[in-house]
Amino acid sequence: MDVVCCPLDKADLDLDVDERDDEEILAGTLTCTECGETYPIEDGIPNLLPPDMREEATA
Predict the structure, then answer these.
(1) What mean pLDDT, rounded, does the chain reach?
(2) Contacts of 53 (CB under 8 A, 6+ apart)
(3) Which Gene3D superfamilies match (predicted)?
């Protein structure tokens, strides 16, 4: 978590865990402490694309 930051403003991210397997986080969210943007964690992989790029990637 020390090397991961918000791609929009480079601020710290808060972790909210929904599902965990031992030491690995499988699902949850990362929330920027400055702008409040949230980034999903799915299947253990955080999606740190900015919101507009995230929407294009899922379309």
Answers:
(1) 90
(2) none
(3) 2.20.25.10
| Residues 33-58, mean pLDDT to the nearest whole number | 89
Q: Which residues contact 32 (CB under 8 A, 6 or more apart)?
A: 6, 8, 9, 11, 12, 13, 14, 38, 39
Model confidence band, residue 36 (pLDDT cutoffs 50, 70, 90): very high
* Every domain of the chain and the residues it spans: 13-50
CA distance 56 to 17: 25
Identify the bridge partners of residue 13 per DSSP, sorted by sequence position.
32
Total-model pTM: 0.84
